[in-house]
Amino acid sequence: MAEIRLTRVEQGQTKIKNVPIAVTPDGFWCCPSPVVFQKTLKSQNPLNKPKPSSPPPKTTVQKKPIPLTEKKPMTSPIRPAVTSDDQRTSGPDNPGISAPIVPERVPRPKVEHVPRKVAIEFGEPGTSDMKVILLGKQGFCVKLSVHKKVLLEHSSFFTDKLSEQESGLSCLEIDDCEDVEIYVETVGLMYCTEMKQRLIKQSVSRVLRILKVAELLGFNSCIQSCLEYLEAVPWVGEEEEEKVVSSVLRLQGGGLEVTPVLKRISSDVSHPPNDTITHIMDLVLKSNEERGRREMKSIVLKLLRENNSLPSYAGSADICHETVYTSCRSCLDSLLSLFKRAAEPEFTDKPMDIKEPVVKQIALEADNLSWLLEILADRQAADEFALMWASQQDLATLHSKLPIVSRYHVSCITARLFVGIGKGELLPVKDTRKLLLQTWLQPLINDYSWLQHGCRSFDRKVVEEGIGRTILTLPLEDQQSILIGWLGSFLKAGDNCPNLQRAFEVWWRRTFIRPYADAQGNVLQSDSSMTSKQ
Q1: What SS3 state is found at 189?
Q2: Orientation of helix 290-307 relative to helix 316-342, angle to 10°
Q3: d(CA 247, CA 498)
Q4: H/E segment holding residue 172
Q5: Distance CA 243, CA 265 (A)
Q6: The pLDDT value given to residue 438
Q7: What is the pLDDT of residue 102?
């Protein structure tokens, strides 16, 4: 392994962020953590510092300082010694030996004693034939002792720079270096034979920084190694994925193989086929495992909501609507068949192991329809569903023949439709709204007590507001017939019936107060016109 030495450290007058330096097994410098460099500085004997005030005399006996000859010299060639210019007075035979450790606690070094410049040598000691000086932000400077042959072999940037200058150029200065730390590491990778092994322990964010510097240097072998790393490593989180994609897209058109990385986020097929969406929907709808089905319904619903922001020309919205309505019809047919089976007279006398699967399947199909309705309502495409549900007279007739524990899931669908109409999430035509109330309001009233106590997601105030607003969208005569029918149920059931008093008050004012007020206003208007004529 080639030895790497820290040749010089100069002092400056301003406190600058120091680039930490460490030696890698392959013989080049990298910068793992700012703490490393700071600890190295603190380990040195602080010279040119004001001595601390002498402590008051103590009666205890102080320990004798350890003689210099008893200290062990640093023998490891891969552990650099960061020294200042004043520390070079130590003997040439023991350059790595620091001064004796003072038992007293010393103050922190002052700003003017923190070094501003760091010199780094790559390869075998004393064999470098070129200097590269990196001038970073805030005046920080790093001088690299490198080999011109290595730079010309790996970097098109250095090849162009050296070809523009004299052939005997021995020093190249790079101004405004944004990331000195990564620049040093990237140059060190030119001396590394197994770049993939070097990158494998790095984080994605650090490899992206290396990729950026390698792109600036025209270091194609490093760029390819970074792309291979990014193709294999997991990307954690959307933010990291966006950074990777933007960095890789920047390399397109440069003759580099970026397709394997981008394959993770793009497909050769421009749009997902309808069969794939249908298959996903069928898998979720036909699942008999309650927890898995519930969680996947939540995930798919969330993802479809994200797709709502896509432009209309994307084409996915129409495919989704067609798929959802196909599933709706299938669920409705299955639900009607189950209701017919459960409504048979002999069904109640059958053993529980026969009845229970039917009851569970009714709950499953009703839950599937509720989920499909949520998808359509989010995409403002539930008007057709309202018509389909309002037209289920056979299902509504069978509803009263089933025990409430078996049928109440169906009333959740009705309640959701009323809430959607009340909030303006769906806008079915007048005839559909009237038919929906005529078909399903009474079954909902019959199940209302159970819904309040047996359904966790049921919100009484929201449902009652939705029913009232739906009624008030109808002509006044239809409002009257529906509210008078509700009044009879409310006076019998009380809290076990939807409370539509607000809608009743609005209808009352529209029927009995407003006509009188309008008539009185017309009389006053005619009187004023007669007075003006006189």
Answers
A1: helix
A2: 150
A3: 58
A4: strand 171-177
A5: 13
A6: 94
A7: 46
What pLDDT, on a 0 to 100 scale, did the predictor assign at position 134? 87
Q: What is the pLDDT of residues 504-532, one digit of tens each?
A: 999 999 998 876 666 665 555 655 555 55
Tokens of 211: 């990729």
Instruction: With CA atoms as reference, report the closest residue to 81 among 124, 1, 23, 146.
Output: 23
One-letter-per-residue 3-state SS of 450-474: HHHHHCCCCCHHHHHHHHHHHHHCC
Instruction: Work out whether strand 130-136 and strand 171-177 pair parallel, antiparallel, or are unpaired.
Output: parallel
Q: How is the chain split among helix, strand and coil, in percent rounded to 5?
A: 60, 5, 35
Q: How far is CA 11 from the centre of its chain?
A: 45
Q: 0.70 exceeded by the pTM?
A: no
d(CA 97, CA 68): 9
Beta bridge partners of 121: 145
What is the C-alpha to C-alpha distance for residues 453 and 404, in angstroms, rounded to an integer? 12
Helix (H) or strand (E) holding 141: strand 141-146
Q: Is residue 206 a contact partner of residue 229, using CB atoms and an 8 Å limit?
A: no
Q: Give every strand in the sheet of 115-121, ordered side by side.
A: 9-11, 115-121, 141-146, 130-136, 171-177
CA distances (Å), origin 401, targets 45, 355, 394:
94, 15, 12
Query: How far is Cα 389 from Cα 371, in angstroms, rounded to an integer?
Result: 14
Tens of pLDDT, residue by residue over 42-89, are 444 444 444 444 444 444 444 444 443 343 333 333 333 333 333 333
Distance CA 161, CA 464 (A): 78
Helix 352-378 to helix 290-307 angle, to the nearest 10 degrees? 10
Find residue 22's DSSP bridge partners.
Answer: 30
